[in-house]
Amino acid sequence: MIHSMLAKDKQALFLAHRKELIDQCCEKLARWGVPYSVIKADDKRYDPGKPVQVASIQTLIRRKVWPHADVIFIDECHRSVSRSYRKIIDFYREANNPPVIGLTATPYRADGRGLGELYEDLVVSTSTRQLCDDGYLVEPRVFCASNVELDGVQMRGAEFDEDALDELMREVILKGDIVRQWQSKANGAKTVVFCVNVRHSKAVAEQFIAAGIPAAHLDAKSNDADREKILNDLAEGRLMVVTNVGILTEGWDLPGLECVTLARPTASRSLYRQMIGRVMRPDESKRFAIVLDHAGCTVRHGKVTEDEDYNLNGVRRRGKGGKAQEQLNVPFPCPQCLLFVEQKTTVCPECGYEFPKIEAKVVVEDVDLEEITLRNPQVVYRNLCMTAIRNGYKAGWVAVRFKDEFGRWPRDLEKPPEFIEYEKAEVLSKDPEQEFHKFCQVCIEKKYNPRWVSVRFKEMFGRWPEFAASDEFTTYQSEFMKTESEEQEDSEEQQNNAASDDRQDQDQISSEQEKAQEQDLFMRSAI
Fold it and tell me: Is residue 110 part of a domain?
């Protein structure tokens, strides 16, 4: 696409929000022989005369003069509906209205906003499942903790509040000792660990070092030189483990990475998939791909290879009790002067009150992580339930998909509490009489026993139906009962005939035995 533009003397602008993404783009452009320039603070590659400008969104937004663009590419475009991106896009649309092409593996946002605010069409080139089957990605083995509770954690924006997570980690804690689980399941593997916050990340790195495992920590305050050295040491094998806080989720690739440890919960499906995606790149030296999920993220979001239905509409986030959250970043009052401030405020601008930050104190429950496999019925069922909730599918879709997978209905499996509430909400939205007649029609079409209708109705509404059936169903019921009665009579007659035959056979056997005994006596007397 870019080569065809250059042939027409057109210019392109490529936007990204991280150094790693910018360098990755430049590497590919150089490989393809495309002349480019970089717009980034203190970057010596800047040349305004080049036809392709690769720009840091943070740098460009601060510049007074922006380059001409006949087309705009946006990497990790699920971020592009945010204010900074929109300011740039709105400027170019007023200037010359160039086409905007977004690139992302996760076309959805945790705050529920749809990308349709900016884009007109969505092109899904393939699926994670297909990429794994074709060898372009490596499907990881997942070892997971399934009982980390997050119901009491406050939300900050569209993500768990880090302070609340700190408090949670102090009370509920991660499942499984991080170092011991790594040693037993991924020993010797190049590993990245995603942590709750900086203090937690440093503590985990120190635990690995204390166990004799070379490790280092990265966070947003790490300078470029330290970051580059640490990641190079990991790639070359001088380091075995790198712990981090939100640094290595996007734009960083190490195909030889063999293990990702999730030592933090996340409410964001996009972030969850980005974290696991780090270990899915193929490489000749790669022995395996393993995910150690200490926070139950896989149970919450499902396996990354599950099929997803993408769209540009977004979803309306729902709060506790099913109430929609109209605002995700609700202001709250300063406890000292009562000025309303944003949730991320650290110091009140009116009175100078410093909002307390809870210090993380991570305690570990020493349990063994269990491998999650697609053939585990309970795991598959739970993942299907959560998929239905995420995508707004009908509750019945879960049972149908499960039956397709295992050839039976999931009647003996435990339903997740979230799915029970989801089913209740769906039932409340249905008209009982209408559903009763639907069941009657299905019963006729599938030739079920008419009693199935009442049982199915009671399963859904918790009571027996009291509605008058249609003439069609009444006729079907009569014919079915008549056929059933005739079949029962035929069965009884066959049983009676069989019993009669058995008696005749027994009589014949007894008669033959008597004759044999008489012959035996005769022979004995003759002797």
Answer: no
